[in-house]
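Morning run. Coffee first, then this:
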Amino acid sequence: MGWRKSGVRKGKRGRGKWTQRGGERIRETEGWDGGEDREINEELGLRIKQIGEELKEGEKESTEARRRGWWDEECGDKRKEVWKVLRKWRKEGGSGEEYRKLRGEYKLLCKRKKEEENGRWLREAQEARTEGEVWQIVNRERKCWKGINEMIKMEEWKGHFMRLLGGVEGKVVRGGVKRILGEEEGEIDRGELKRVIERLKKGKASGADGVPNEVWKLGGERIEEWAWRFCNRVWRGEGWPEQWKDGVIVPLVKKGGGERVEEYRGVTLMPTLYKVYVGVLTGRLKEEMEEKAMLPP
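And here it is:
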C-alpha cells in the first residue's frame, strides 16, 4: 500500500458528465468481463481511459442539448403532423376532431419537454454548486466561497503543504507482495462492495483520474462486477495501483482573506475507486473491533 500527494488544484476542473447512454456504451464495450490477464496498472489505466472518453462524450452531448433547449426533432415532427391535419381539415371540412386530438398531444409533448429541460437545468445547477464547494465543504462562517489567490506561486503552495504534511514531499510505501489469506481473511464479498458504492454521494469532486462517483453508482451490474473483481486483485496482493498513490490537494480558505498561503488549508481528493476499496477495509476493521469489544461504549 502507499500514497503520495500530487499537485495542487487551484480552481474548478471539468470532469465530464456521466450519462445513461454513456453507461450503456461502456457496458457494450468488450473486455469488462475479463482483464485478469493484464497487469493491474495496465488494466486500471485502460478502464479509466474508456470511462474518460465516455465522460467527455457525455459532456459534449449535454452541451449540445443545452444549445438546442427543450425543442427537439420529436417536437418538430409532431408540429408538422398537426399542420398537415389542419390543412386537410380546412380543405375538406369535417368535425376537426383529429386535428384537436393531435393539437392536444402536441401541447402535452411541449409541456413535458419544457419540464424535462427545467429539471435538467436544476440538477446541473445543484451539481455545479456542489462541485464548486468541493465535497460540500462550505465556509459557513463567511457565508460565501472565497476564490484562490492567483498571485500565490506554485512554489509557495508546495512549500506550505509540505510543512503541513511534516516537511516531506511525498510518502510512498511500495507494495505488490502476494498475500496468503488466512482462514478469517476471505476475499471481498460482492455485497460488501455494493454497500460501500450505495453510500457514495453524487456530485462530489473526483480525484486525479477524473472518475466521479456516478460511474460506480450508475454504471450498472457489469461495471460493479468489474470493480469487485479488481478490488479483489488488489486485496490478494497482485499490486497497488499507481493511480491510487496520487492525491490532488485543493486549497480552501481557513482564515483571513486568502491573500497569503498560510491562510489556506488543504483537502486531498483521491480516486473514487480507491475510496470504495478503503471503504470496504474500513467496514471490516470496524466489524472486527466491535466483535472484540475494542471500541469504547
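The chain has one domain: 4-68+132-291. Good start to the day.
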